[in-house]
Inverse folding.
């Protein structure tokens, strides 16, 4: 895929002017908060927060990496932050890759 065909911006997606300074402050603030949780080994809190902000659970996806392609339904995120994808044959634990949401 050509990046030009899929690239977007916050302004395009929200149809609003986004202050880069406010956005950066928010990112740093949340990074610090989550980094503290990581140092304290509060993984469950990080996972719960991520799940509450995500809409990926229940979506059909294709995940591609250097070695494989996984097609299936995202069912969960495990305690290590990996996506659990149910293919037609098995549950696959996905550590990383390029994810495309299938329609």
């Amino acid at each position: 895929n050509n990046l030009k065909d899929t690239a977007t911006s916050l302004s395009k997606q929200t149809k609003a002017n986004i202050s880069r300074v406010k956005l950066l402050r928010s990112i740093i603030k949340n990074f610090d908060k989550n980094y503290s949780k990581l140092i304290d080994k509060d993984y469950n809190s990080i996972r719960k927060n991520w799940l509450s902000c995500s809409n990926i659970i229940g979506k059909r996806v294709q995940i591609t990496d250097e070695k494989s392609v996984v097609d299936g339904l995202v069912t969960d995120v495990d305690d290590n932050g990996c996506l659990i994808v149910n293919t037609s044959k098995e549950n696959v634990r996905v550590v990383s890759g390029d994810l495309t949401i299938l329609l």
About this structure: Residues 57-103 form a domain with the SH3 type barrels. fold (CATH 2.30.30.100).
